[in-house]
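[step 3/7] fold_predict: job queued, chain A
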Amino acid sequence: MKIFLVAGARPNFMKVAPLMEAFRARKDQYPELEPLLVHTGQHYDAQMSDEFFRDLAMPAPDIHLGAGSGTHAEQTARVMVAFEKICLEHHPALVVVVGDVNSTMACAISARKLGIAVAHVEAGLRSRDMAMPEEINRLCTDVISDFLFTTDPLADQNLLAEGCPPERIHFVGNTMIDSLQKHLNRALAMPLPLGLDAGSYALLTLHRPSNVDDPASLQLLFDAINQIADRIPVLFPAHPRTAQRLAGIRLHDRVQVIEPLGYLSFLGLMARARMVLTDSGGIQEETTVLHVPCLTLRENTERPITCELGTNILAGTNPSNILRHAMDVLNAPPPANRVPDKWDGHAGARIADVLLAWLVRDRRLAAARPIVGSQR
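[step 4/7] structure written:
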């Protein structure tokens, strides 16, 4: 009953940590269970990775593929080749992938071609924007996965509309919220930077190529952000790739660009912000649970449940629209919101229960599925 749990980028670790914990908690009941954490190395910075593992109380990866960066094709190919080798070496009964990064799709394809069962955690999310690499990764992964674990009923509807058999779909909740709830008190105990007080600042994250790679588009975003900074300081933890793009961009002196933060530091900062501006997917979910107003600086979102039930506003990238929504937020008390069903800290346990029931029930069948070598 060997299981590979795959993570490739930092957001994946918040989703994988509850799964690793849930499987390890069941080892007394299933002594033959062997969950192994596979780090593809798609995004890897030694200091940041160490801090994330420490913050999430995760064990070191059992297997590190060291894929590194590159074009989408280069990175995907390196992960597929390296992952196929470890599958042939270890013969896992099951591969669990999370999210929508290149490693998610690459490992799912490699495993499925070897006849290994695949489970996709965070299945069914759709932006309907094929210009997003993540959308392609989601679609490909969902089509070939044996188990589709969804975070909300809208994702179930997407999968059913695409013809996925209902028995493959399992609405379990959100493992990223499992991590948030487990570690929130520790995050709130961490001091705020720059002498800030809770509710006295806005928090900004930007990383999507469509927002940061073109200087003209990036400046348009900051035309709005600079006007917001007239009203409230804006704290911007910038990934090195994004920070490089800021050369030549006009920034308000109250836009404070700081180094990237670890999981706990960022969570504590987000939980105490007056408002968050982001182009991230996961932050839309986390702010919903934290009851912090969120402006998503994109034209679409794969997480519409956060707009229907939560605090998320799809503000787009037009500066006047961003500014209008930001002023509406700052001029009103934080809105009441409902947390989506099953975002309760137990998604990891639900996933483990489904997969272990399958492994036990169909163990003979799973063991008999051939692992074939690469075909030439």
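[step 5/7] annotate
Residues 371-376 have pLDDT under 50 and may be disordered.
Residues 72-90 form the longest helix (19 residues).
exit 0
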